[in-house]
Amino acid sequence: MKRALFFFISIFFLGSCSNSYVTFSGESKNRTGQYKGYVILRNDTVFFVGDKTFETKVELQNYMEQQMNKEHPSDTVLSFKDKNAYDQLKTGDKINVWSSQILESYPAKMIVEKFEIVEKIEKR
Fold first, then answer.
1. Three-state SS string across 69-123, please?
2. Taking Cα atoms as reference points, which of 50, 120, 119, 118 lies closest to residue 78?
3. What is the CATH number for 71?
4. Is the pTM of this model over 0.70?
5. Within a domain: residue 115?
């Protein structure tokens, strides 16, 4: 019995002293896919809010106005391959984007292959 106990304790200590570490794959760098969200324009930067839903347009507009005062209105910046895209968008527009890559930075930079405007925002 003492031998078995000694054996299991030895295995436990040897296992905990190994040099293996948890590593994360580079998947987050190369995530591709389709995302839905809202646009916030500030200067020449297009911010993307993809994790929010709004019950009313007033709620959306209030949120956009509140975010405009922050240094980074969202965690993601869109970078379009089509340079005409910047002229087609307005703050509050709901869009679908197809991304080829999301670069690790803060805020994250999403490389947009194509996009479509789902709903245009109307000014009050």
1. CCCCCCCEEEEECCCCHHHHCCCCCEEEEEEEEEECCCCEEEEEEEEEEEECCCC
2. 50
3. 2.40.50.140
4. no
5. yes
pLDDT, tens only, 70-99: 888 888 999 988 888 888 899 889 999 998
**Distances from the Cα of 68 to the Cαs of 40, 57, 65, 81, 102, in angstroms?**
8, 16, 5, 24, 23
Asked if residue 48 is part of any domain, the answer here is yes
Per the structure, the count of domains in the chain is 1
Residue 108: give the domain boundaries: 28-119
Biggest CA–CA distance in the chain, Å, is 80
Q: Over the stretch 56-70, which tens digit does the pLDDT of each residue have? A: 888 988 888 888 888
Interatomic CA distance for residues 32 and 11, integer angstroms: 42
**Residue type for 101, please?**
Q
Task: Give the position of tokens 């009050």.
Answer: 124
Identify whether 81 is part of a domain.
yes
